[in-house]
């Protein structure tokens, strides 16, 4: 009798597991994406690929890239216990379909909003539909061609000449190693705050490079913890921690509080100034920033704040990450840097005092930036969520609710897209025409093969501004300084919300 009871109780203890496994078994046996079953990690009933996902959790980028290379259509299915079914693709036809052809069926979706909602609120990065459309118009208008020129003449030139170059000069004279990634991040933060908020937080000062910058740390903490939410093997864990206000979730709440305070203070001060300027009938440059325009148009405070936080996130780490990897790659390929120096000498400013027209001529430099981002894209992957059942151009069946991820990091490493030498840094692959030793035209690989700026209706509206900024900064540094990494080891690419170099990029700077 005792044995029977023991048997029954053992069976009962397995019952929840058996019940849990039924949906997974059904999916495994009859799931609509069955033709992808050999394209992706080994999956088991009930747990899916949880074991291999866990084993590869520290090298997800390369794990996905290897599987995508082996997949006949460069698309894989990741299905694991505790997480949403995810289709990852490096196939340009699929990417075009998701980002443009059937855009409305692939919004960011609630699962994305859940992860980033506490931090980004209703900011452009985190909304779909009408809310997105409204902010998109504001942002695109802000970054039109006329304002781009004004940006170079008034903000970029000023920040480079008064801040960045003096800091580089001090580093060259002082002879001590500086973290170039940190320096560029601070520079980009100051810049994007001036453009979006019309406020200069002055985070880049040579004397203060070692000093903590609480607002930068708050942004780092918030984006880091949100990215880890997205990559967590079990989403329930961070939700419970948030409910209990514990550990990383408590730190996230505190960091968001600091960020809100920072933006709110600036916006209130702006309101006060604008009101007083309006009373006196004055028009000033700093009213050209987006926050001022939104305040002047009477937009809601919370809406202004959310838009600002998204913009700061967009402009802050992306360009600095791209430039950091470019300087690293140049240090490994001196001949590419020599070619850049030749181009910079050959193309001078002439009457163009701000250098804006000159930037358009620096095509080898642009090829180097594109090639660097092909290998180390600032946004390594990006996901949408399917609204309804669908089928991608390669035949992959998508179910309503699936996460669909396009993957610029993997795309830059596909032999089918870039050939045998895909792992090599070769800016010449971007050059289409050379005349008397100068690059006259570049190839356009199209946004679905080179998807680092996303594509379609949600393509990055800051793309031109980013190129202008990166060209201006790299040219200004390369013309004056030589950069040598302190540790010649291969750095590690960390793909959080925006990718960066683990432990920074320590360099020695000397005058040319
Ligand atoms: C190398 C630099 C940059 C890269 C690689 C880049 C890439 C991207 C990518 C991949 C997205 C889509 C992200 C998503 O939907 O989750 C995006 C969106 C966006 N980017 Fe950029 N970006 C760069 C620089 C900038 C800059 C400098 C700004 C402006 C200051 C900017 C503003 C935006 C905005 C506002 C969005 C949201 C667009 C929307 O949802 O409609 N970006 N960017």
TrEMBL record:
Keywords: Heme, Iron, Metal-binding, Oxidoreductase, Signal. InterPro entries: Cyt_P450 (IPR001128), Cyt_P450_E_grp-I (IPR002401), Cyt_P450_sf (IPR036396). Heme binds at residue 460. Its EC number is 1.14.14.48. Its main location: membrane. GO terms for biological process: terpenoid biosynthetic process. GO terms for molecular function: metal ion binding; oxidoreductase activity, acting on paired donors, with incorporation or reduction of molecular oxygen, reduced flavin or flavoprotein as one donor, and incorporation of one atom of oxygen. Its cofactor is heme. Belongs to the cytochrome P450 family. PANTHER family: CYTOCHROME P450 (PTHR24296). This is Jasmonoyl-L-amino acid 12-hydroxylase. It comes from Salvia divinorum. The lineage of its organism: Eukaryota, Viridiplantae, Streptophyta, Embryophyta, Tracheophyta.
